[in-house]
């Protein structure tokens, strides 16, 4: 059944339902342990399928545009953390300290893959560069995000682990399945082409499972008792300010540096977005279970906000003359 146009998309509704379920019926005890194991397996399958889906030809085709990729990486891993840090005196009073910790974690994450490429396609941008740049951002995030968490969230990031232990855990859970997926392309790519819908199911299923597990642990630790309604309203404003600053910053930089309109579109959509698919599993590795639910809440809000805003932007770009 189609979702009415005045409602958010189906996946957003499922996220809201998952958080509600975790709030009313959190997994505890043996059930929580089973959900933890299921989460690790589902995320590994997700990244295996992404590795199997990504064409090596697409990677090679986009690698030559190094100036564009350098700007996207700088926006993702330098501009965003600087925004989170520089705007902290202004934005932090609007939310709880724990929520702003989640905002800073959001700023350290890699870019999205599917939605960045999809919006670039709608806006008639540089598709080959978008595929390469968004995919490279995900892989670089495995190494860069733990380092940035250590820098912007000292004494909080990498809870219960050292830096190298965190990177090793993320590589084992995300990078290794991705590489195995790439190595299996000879056999798995034809299956992926015939059953592309399965990847979307695993994408969304993995995120919903991780969100339920993280929020269950947070609710058991008293999440909602510690989160006033005013902070939720403040979080919307915080995410809006950071997203607006990132969109304006990437657009201005692309134009000042003389990129074509097609390249500008790719820079804006790949350099201003943050990945829910990568961020939620990373939060489970980098933060204690009780903190992960609070940490991913800003990411969930930002994710929906970036989808709505970028959908409007993509349509505006698409209306330009051929």
UniProtKB/TrEMBL annotation:
Entry's InterPro entries?
Na+/solute_symporter_sf, Put_Na-Bile_cotransptr
**Sorted alphabetically, which Pfam families does this protein's record hold?**
SBF_like
Q: Which UniProt keywords apply?
A: Membrane, Transmembrane, Transmembrane helix
Q: Where are the transmembrane segments?
A: 37-54, 66-87, 99-122, 129-151, 163-184, 205-226, 232-254, 282-302
* Record flagged with keyword Membrane: yes
Fetch the PANTHER family from UniProt.
SODIUM_BILE ACID COTRANSPORTER 7, SOLUTE CARRIER FAMILY 10 MEMBER 7
Q: What name does the UniProt record give this protein?
A: Bile acid:sodium symporter
Which species is this UniProt entry from?
A: Comamonas faecalis
């Amino acid at each position: 059944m189609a979702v009415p146009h005045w409602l958010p998309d189906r996946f957003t509704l499922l996220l809201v339902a998952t958080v509600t379920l975790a709030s009313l019926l959190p997994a505890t005890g043996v059930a929580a342990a089973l959900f933890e194991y299921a989460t690790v397996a589902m995320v590994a399958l997700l990244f295996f399928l992404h590795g199997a889906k990504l064409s090596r030809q697409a990677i090679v085709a986009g690698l030559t545009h190094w100036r564009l990729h350098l700007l996207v990486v700088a926006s993702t891993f330098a501009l965003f953390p600087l925004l989170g840090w520089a705007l902290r005196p202004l934005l932090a009073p609007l939310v709880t300290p724990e929520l702003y910790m989640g905002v800073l974690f959001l700023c350290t994450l890699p870019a999205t893959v599917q939605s960045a490429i999809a919006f670039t396609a709608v806006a008639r941008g540089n598709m080959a560069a978008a595929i390469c740049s968004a995919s490279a951002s995900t892989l670089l995030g495995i190494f860069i995000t733990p380092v940035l968490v250590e820098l912007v969230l000292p004494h909080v990031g990498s809870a219960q682990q050292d830096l190298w232990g965190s990177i090793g855990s993320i590589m084992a859970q995300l990078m290794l399945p991705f590489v195995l997926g790439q190595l299996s392309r000879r056999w798995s790519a034809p299956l992926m082409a015939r059953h592309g819908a399965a990847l979307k199911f695993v994408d969304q299923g993995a995120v919903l499972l991780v969100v339920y597990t993280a929020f269950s642990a947070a609710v058991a630790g008293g999440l909602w008792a510690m989160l006033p309604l005013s902070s939720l309203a403040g979080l919307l404003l915080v995410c809006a300010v950071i997203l607006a600053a990132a969109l304006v910053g990437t657009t201005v930089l692309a134009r000042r540096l003389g990129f074509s309109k097609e390249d500008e579109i790719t820079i804006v959509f790949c350099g201003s977005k943050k990945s829910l698919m990568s961020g939620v599993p990373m939060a489970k590795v980098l933060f204690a279970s009780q903190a992960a639910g609070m940490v991913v809440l800003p990411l969930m809000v930002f994710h929906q906000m970036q989808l709505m805003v970028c959908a409007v932007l993509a349509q505006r770009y698409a209306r330009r003359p051929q």
